[in-house]
Amino acid sequence: MQNAKLFYKIKIMNYKTTKLIFLTVLFFGIFGLARTSQAATINAASCNQSDMQMAINASSDGDTIIIPAGNCVWTAYVIVPNTKGLTIQGAGIGQTTIRDNMATHGYQQALFFVQVTSGKFTRITGMTLDVNNQSTTNGVIYINGNDGGQNFRVDHIKFINYGNGRGIKIDGYTYGLVDNNIFIGGGHSIDSFGDGSASWLRPASLGTDNAVYIENNTFDFSVSGRSDGVTDAYGGARYVFRYNNVIGTNIGHHGNDSGNYRSPITFEIYNNSFVNNSPANIFTWGNFRGGTGVIFNNIISAGTKTYNSFAILHDYRSCTYFEGMHDGRDGSAFLSDSTANFGAGLQGVLTNGLYVYNLTAGSYCAITSHTDSGPATAVCTLHGGTRQTWKNGDYYGIHYIQAKARIFNLYLSPSLNRPNRGL
Q: Which end of the chain has fewer CB atoms at under 10 Å, N or C?
């Protein structure tokens, strides 16, 4: 596999080569003269948001935008469109500092809202981003793409003061590289969100470039501590986490139990260093809720505190709370079982993704309300299958996950080791 520098150069060179061939044919064919166009370097007037957006708007595909040294406070975000691939380059960590002071952080509202597409490679590099302890659920860099290309690189950036927010969020059917950054922790440093169920319809891609690569970064949670993970992933994401130095937190990702987003489909975690120098013990090193993964050759150490276990592998799909038979009337809109006592077993978890499976009809529904006994009942909303009504004698099971969630496989294996892509 190529390193990031070569990867980046190939993307740009392929574009230039295609453009050069086109221009040669055009000008020789019409004017008998060949001319090439060169990518430009645009110097933003300052690190202010308005000057940055002006430079982006004035740029062309392949250009480099230089952000000068300075300390700037942004109250609005910039948009990098997918009509052009750009390099956005600061003067370096500690030289160019941008502080987030936006009043709202709704969907896609991040300091850098980056839209990517194949053939338009975008890179953001060389600065400090001060999150200012804002609630940045979509990150301070938000990347969105939908065509499955290797479209972006985020590197040599220091993220500070991001409290319980996010550093980077990657959303959709897109892949790229996050490398050589420093995250001084609070919330998740990087969230990777795939394109949902569509990702699960494509083959697994372990050992290929079809993933978000997170490598050669430092994640420091030694002051804040965090037991919810250095990164997170949902919705059919595919990620590789390698060659990173992690201090004071653990790793893991969510599954379909969390908002019906499905889990990642593939993950690779190897050649990392983890040490718990946080203020408290952490319940586990790895907390995984779905997908197929490869984990190997990581160094996991106790520091000032320890990890209480190695890993927790959540198998929600086969976790059954109750099984039984509907003995209510035919055509009932709700499940009824006079012999069951749901009791405290459903209370406290009712709103966290419980589903009733009609094992006779092959349908399933999400519980919205229930009674414990006399008879035990469950009212639910159909999520799969065609029949929501119940017939006397229908068998049921109550589970903690929707159907069609792949049971996850975990391999502790010395395979799939590939050279670094980052510089």
A: N
pLDDT in tens, 135-174: 777 889 999 999 998 999 999 999 998 777 789 999 999 9
Q: What string of H, E and C letters represents the secondary structure of the chain?
A: CCCHHHHHHHHHHHHHHHHHHHHHHHHHHHCCCCCCCCCCEEECCCCCHHHHHHHHHHCCCCCEEECCCEEEEECCCEEECCCCCCEEECCCCCCEEEEECCCCCCCCCCCEEEECECCECEEEEEEEEECCCCCCCCCCEEEEEEEEEEEEEEEEEEEECCCCCCCEEEEEEEEEEEECCEEECCCCCEEEECCCHHHHHCCCCCCCCCCEEEECCEEECCCCCCCCCCEEEECCCEEEEECCEEECCCEEECCCCCCCCCCCCEEEEECCEEEECCCCCECCCEEECCCEEEEECCEEEECCCCECCCEEECCCCCCEEEEEECCCCCCECCEEECCCCCHHHCCCCCCCCCEEEECCCCEEEEEEEEECCCCEEEEEEEEECCCCCECCCCEEEEECCCCCCCCCEEECCCCCCCCCCCC
CA distances (Å), 70 to each of 43, 67, 117, 378, in order?
Answer: 13, 9, 31, 60
* Residue type, position 97, single letter: T
Cβ atoms within 10 Å, residue 343: 11
Residue corresponding to tokens 């400090």: 128
Q: Which residues contact 17 (CB under 8 A, 6 or more apart)?
A: none
Question: CA 78 to CA 82: how far, in whole Å?
Answer: 13
User: In angstroms, rounded to a whole number, what is the distance separating the alpha carbons of residues 290 and 255?
Assistant: 6
Contact between residue 195 and residue 169 where contact means Cβ atoms under 8 Å apart: no
Distance between CA atoms of 186 and 160, rounded to whole angstroms?
Answer: 9
Q: What are phi and psi of 277, to 5 degrees?
A: -105, 35
- Give the tens place of pLDDT for each residue, 342-371: 764 555 444 445 778 888 887 878 888 888
Q: Is 423 exposed, middle or buried (0-12, 13-18, 19+ CB in 10 A)?
A: middle
User: Tokens at residue 332, please?
Assistant: 């009932």
